[in-house]
Amino acid sequence: MSVAASRFAAESTTPSQVASDLASLNINSTAAHYTPSEGPTPAAQGGGGKVRAAPTTQAASNCSTLKDRAESAFCKLSRWTRRDFRHGDIISIPYHTPNLDPYVQEDDSCLTYTDEGYVYSKRRMLIVLWIHQQDLFCVPLFSFGGKGIRGKPEWLRKEYVSVRNKGDKKFDNQGPCPPVDVVAWKKPMHPMTAVQITGGTKVNFSEDIAFCGRTTEDGYNHLLELWNELWMKAQGEVWRN
């Protein structure tokens, strides 16, 4: 068994089950699927969304991921530890970036002013690539307003890969390479979902994390190969004075 294979337990959801779930949903309805920039909260997922029998430090009587003892009124800490995470997990977190969109309105509830400028915050979904001692290394998911990868300039599309719900035989691949297969819990991913391969993000275990699904083993290995390919190409550029 390969190192990558040892990271993945046997799938508990069969392709026929996923196909049946997909068939029963209106894939164009916002409520029928996960939108990457509107990730669910731990409360919405119930117990943070963990549906596997993995060891956890969560109190059995409390399905919230928040600690019983809050550090302060301004600090949210979860109970997750390293052993709660697996390669390929799809998670949802509070995601903060400098606002670079000139069309965002000042009264947008996602916009916050700080001493260093405006910050835009959403709950975004990400895929866990690997796990360190205190942090996850993840890549973010986007749908670009429902446009998918075709909403990006041609020269940028090689830095993205489409996400396909396992068992979806009507999938329209928008990217230049095969898609990454995933199994989402509760409802499928938006059909225009894409991974930004170059968008590495560090996530601390104590952040307000919800679990939303997982890639398949083949999907994870494919994503890792794409990441390594772009990483090696970028590192191979000559030193510039």
Automatic annotation (TrEMBL):
Region of interest (Disordered), ranges: 31-56
Domain DUF6590 per the UniProt entry, residue ranges: 83-170
Top-level taxon: Eukaryota
InterPro entries (alphabetical): DUF6590
Pfam families in alphabetical order: DUF6590
Protein's recorded name: DUF6590 domain-containing protein
Lineage: Eukaryota, Fungi, Dikarya, Ascomycota, Pezizomycotina
